[in-house]
Amino acid sequence: MPNALVIDDSRAMRMLIGDALRGIGYSVDEAENGSAAIFRLDDGVSRDVALVDWNMPVMNGLDFIRTVRSDSRFRHMRLLVITSETEAGQVMNALAAGADEYLMKPFSRETLISKLEMLGLQGLSSGTA
Ligand SMILES: [Mg+2]
User: Fold this and answer.
1) Whose C-alpha in 7, 9, 119, 126 is 20 to 30 A from the C-alpha of 104?
2) Could you tell me the pTM of the whole model?
3) What residues does the ion ligand 1 have nearby, CB within 5 Å?
4) How many A from CA of 8 to the centre of ligand 1?
């Protein structure tokens, strides 16, 4: 079963993304900011992908990405950054810091799934097998 960590300070957004992922067969953990996510990742469970909100208190998406990309334990974990339209200018910074892909809010379930497939992760087509 593919494994995802959803990191967002909005509980509603975590639920939305989590439900979409569970719907295509993912096991999902959640964290409310980058710092809580780092703590979560210390449990030794390997995650296929982290979906990372850009704007969060305590530790934002950029600092989370930099931290994860400087730690070889997480080199196989894909990082999908989620920005709002007003943060669109940050996409280049996210990719430069080591994000693999990005998604702009608001997004459809189909767009989320196609981004996962772009990363070589399980999407709808492979999820129901
Ligand atoms: Mg946020």
Assistant:
1) 126
2) 0.93
3) 9, 53, 55-56
4) 6
For 112, the enclosing helix (H) or strand (E) is helix 109-118
Contact yes or no for 101/72 (Cβ under 8 A): no
Query: Tens digits of per-residue pLDDT, 37-63?
Result: 999 999 989 999 999 999 999 999 999
**Ligand 1 center to 32 CA (angstroms):** 9
Q: At 19, is the secondary structure helix, strand, or coil?
A: helix
Cα-to-centroid distance, 11 and ligand 1 (Å) = 10
C-alpha of residue 89 to centroid of ligand 1, in Å = 16
pLDDT in tens, 1-13: 899 999 999 999 9
Give the type of residue at 112: L
CATH fold label, 3-124? Rossmann fold (3.40.50)
